[in-house]
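A reminder from the course coordinator: this example appears on the midterm review sheet, so study it carefully.

Given structure:
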């Protein structure tokens, strides 16, 4: 039993129907897959290692800023060039090594606001090129975040993109309603409370319009979630709203499936575990993980430095002797590895929270 035998998925990056099968399976079996934001081969490898160790599929996602970082901060990002090339480079890294980790990987790009569309277009071009050669897109899925625009405009631009994406079997993730907090330069920390909760009619409008084009889309709805970790404020997480959304869409479709929509949970960092579980039971199949794994990566390095401090002050000389070399302590492979181990541990915890363990 499990993903490999029941769904016949390959190891490595999966696309198209295989992603659809995986998301359907997760929804039916009541678990979700963490989408871990990665910015380097080190964070990617740590994520793959974690998922392999607990026998689970994983989603790796790249933000626009993370993609530019992957290409190198020394490169100009004029016209989104570094973000495009960085995302493509990361995609090839993931494609090259992920089969060896023996797990299915969904390769996704994160939030793309309207002003960043050239980044999206650049990745899409690479997908089309890759499709011509290999019969599948380079990425599995991309996200468009036009939640700042009026609903009609948000939906109509998503439709235009989904038409192009459907031709090469790409998934689209869209966002409706506003997730609080700040991410990649979009600051929603002072948005009015009511717009932090998407209404059922909004979900139906999105579902009705997009499902005419393709089944391959997911919706990030706002239910009081916030990007980043903040002190508890006046925003309250209401996962129960997702249940109402599902019921509303089910009634409109008059279908058997009590969870017709694939939901994505943004801003899950710092959430109470019970709220995460509840959201998953209402059809969340993907939860973004960024802030908590960033902290874990740093914490690994911090702990290492604190425990080896006296060996890290000069190239030669430590408590064992003035002539003792410290090379084996300051070799980046040693201290970066500590970050990787700590991050992998946090990725595993996210998988546990979402029920994404022993699924292969
Ligand atoms: Zn979001």
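Designed residues:
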């Amino acid at each position: 039993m499990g993903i490999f035998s029941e769904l016949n998925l390959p190891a490595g990056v999966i696309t198209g129907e295989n992603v659809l099968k995986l998301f359907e399976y997760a929804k039916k079996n009541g678990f979700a897959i963490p989408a871990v934001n990665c910015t380097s081969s080190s964070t990617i490898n740590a994520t793959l290692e974690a998922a392999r160790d607990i026998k689970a599929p994983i989603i790796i996602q790249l933000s626009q800023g993370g993609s530019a970082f992957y290409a190198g901060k020394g490169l100009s990002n004029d016209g989104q060039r570094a973000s495009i090339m960085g995302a493509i480079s990361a995609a090839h890294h993931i494609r090259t090594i992920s089969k060896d980790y023996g797990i299915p990987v969904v390769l996704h790009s994160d939030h793309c606001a309207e002003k960043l569309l050239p980044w999206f277009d650049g990745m899409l071009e690479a997908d089309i090129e890759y499709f011509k050669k290999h019969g599948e897109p380079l990425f599995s899925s991309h996200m468009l975040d036009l939640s700042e625009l009026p609903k009609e405009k948000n939906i109509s631009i998503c439709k235009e993109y989904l038409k192009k994406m459907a031709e090469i079997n790409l998934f689209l993730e869209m966002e409706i309603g506003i997730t609080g907090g700040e991410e990649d330069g979009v600051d929603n920390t002072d948005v009015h409370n009511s717009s932090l909760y998407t209404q059922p009619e909004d979900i139906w409008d999105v579902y009705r319009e997009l499902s005419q084009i393709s089944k391959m889309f997911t919706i990030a709805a706002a239910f009081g979630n916030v990007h980043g970790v903040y002190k508890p404020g006046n925003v309250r997480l209401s996962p129960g709203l997702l249940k109402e959304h599902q019921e509303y869409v089910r009634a409109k479709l008059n279908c058997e499936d009590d969870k017709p929509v694939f939901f994505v949970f943004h801003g899950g960092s710092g959430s109470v575990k019970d709220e995460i579980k509840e959201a998953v039971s209402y059809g969340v199949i993907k939860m973004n993980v960024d802030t908590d794994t960033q902290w874990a990566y740093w914490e690994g390095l911090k702990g290492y430095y604190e425990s080896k401090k006296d060996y890290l002050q000069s190239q030669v000389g430590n408590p064992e002797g003035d002539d003792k070399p410290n090379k084996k302590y300051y070799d980046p492979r040693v201290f970066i590895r500590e970050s990787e181990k700590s991050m992998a541990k946090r990725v595993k915890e996210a998988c546990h929270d979402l029920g994404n363990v022993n699924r292969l």
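The longest strand covers residues 104-109. The chain has 13 helices and 14 strands.
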